Structure to design on (104 residues):
């Protein structure tokens, strides 16, 4: 159950990173509200999961999911470049998360 919380919290991290971009530096009300709310829920879920999970692996998986989600959102929603180098870097993040999870 704790790992499910980490995964959902990581997905929420990707959402708040995306809505932060839409908030235009917290100058637009609704994207700013969405950013703060998803941040709070994401942090809360991670903190609950960390009651039973080790710090390093749970934090790394949370950050990794958020980073990958933001990477994908940047490509899909903002037309950011999709290159072999960027995909390889994302693959290294996934590999690092998998290794960290396996070590836990």
């Amino acid at each position: 159950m704790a790992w499910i919380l980490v995964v959902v919290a990581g997905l929420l991290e990707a959402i708040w990173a995306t809505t932060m971009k839409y908030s235009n530096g917290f100058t637009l009300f609704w994207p700013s509200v969405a950013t703060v709310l998803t941040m709070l829920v994401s942090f809360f879920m991670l903190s609950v999961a960390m009651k039973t999970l080790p710090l390093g692996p749970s934090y790394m998986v949370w950050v990794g999911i958020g980073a990958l989600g933001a990477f994908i959102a940047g490509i899909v929603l903002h037309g950011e470049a999709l290159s072999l180098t960027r995909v390889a870097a994302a693959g290294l993040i996934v590999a690092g998360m998998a290794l960290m999870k396996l070590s836990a």
